[in-house]
Amino acid sequence: MVFLPAMLCNAELYHPQIEALRDLVDPMVLAVAEATMAESATAVLQQAPLHFLLMGTSYGGSLALEVVARAPSRVVGLWLMGCNPGPHNDPAAARLRNDRVRRGEFDAVVEELATRIAYERGPNAVEATSSFRRMARLAGLEVFLRQNTALFGRLDRRPDLAGVTCPTLVIWGREDRFALVQNGAEMSSLIPGARFVVLDGCGHLPTLERPDVTIGLAREWLGRIGVNARTGRSRDTDSVPPHASP
Fold first, then answer.
1. Sheet containing 75-81, strands listed edge to edge, beginning at the edge strand earlier in sequence
2. Which of 131, 134, 238, 244 is the least crowded, having the fewest Cβ atoms under 10 Å away?
3. d(CA 128, CA 114)
4. Within 10 Å of residue 6's Cβ, how many Cβ atoms?
């Protein structure tokens, strides 16, 4: 199972889920930071197994959409959170953040993101926000610049969503201030058979803000795919014909 973290994040974003799902999947976290979504998707496909489950949050969700658009037969299950399937809604603001970071305001930009990243009244808001700050400092400004540039230059992937045929789970925080619930509703309505779940009292990082709920939903999703707890393989994966890597 390939986990694609949100911008400036790493494996810590998925620590609760990775530990709780080890009996079902072999986790692989890929924190990719190329200058374009196309290059990042290529990097993911070069490192991922031939067939794999794919999970992405925010930037990682947008990257997951790019990956599944390029290699749909390799992705046997898709789990998305907090991403926008359309083009960036404010590229000018995104470019301004890049300019500020280049002028030495990286810490200030991170703090602005941190103050909005989690729902402040949620049960794990303090821990989620602290985790984001910690991951962002480790990532650094060069990773931010590449990931942010890739985000505001992304393609509109909505026309491709009807072609997503693997079991898809879409989880959203109702109080997400970076990607509105409407984005998740639109995306799930376009993906055939997608399950859409909205979590109350949750912001942009459901895996940290509502870890137990997301783990439960993930186990249900894996059961829908047919992942076997003893073998770690899925019926869908076993039935997929060989497919050459791009």
1. 28-29, 2-4, 52-57, 75-81, 168-173, 195-199
2. 244
3. 9
4. 30
Q: C-alpha distances in angstroms, 111 versus 28, 133, 177, 191?
A: 28, 7, 15, 35
3-state DSSP: the chain helix, strand, coil percent, rounded to 5?
50, 15, 35
**What distance in Å separates the CA atoms of residue 111 and residue 57, rounded to the nearest whole number?**
19
pTM of this prediction exceeds 0.85? yes
Side chain identity at 71, as an amino acid letter?
A
Angle at 85 between CA 65 and CA 129, to 5 degrees: 90
Q: Can you list the domains of the chain with their CATH numbers? A: 2-235 (3.40.50.1820)
For the stretch 116-166, pLDDT in tens is 999 999 999 999 999 999 999 999 999 999 999 999 999 999 999 999 999
| Model confidence pLDDT, tens digit, residues 25-66 | 999 999 999 999 999 999 999 999 999 999 999 999 999 999
Going from the C-alpha of 82 to that of each of 24, 132, 226, 234, the distances in angstroms are 24, 15, 25, 26
For 125, residues 6+ apart whose C-beta sits below 8 A from its C-beta are: 118, 119, 203, 209
Can you tell me the distance from the alpha carbon of 95 to that of 102, in angstroms, rounded to the nearest whole number? Answer: 11
φ, ψ for residue 169 (rounded to 5)?
-115, 130
Q: Give the number of other CB atoms < 10 A from CB of residue 43.
A: 16
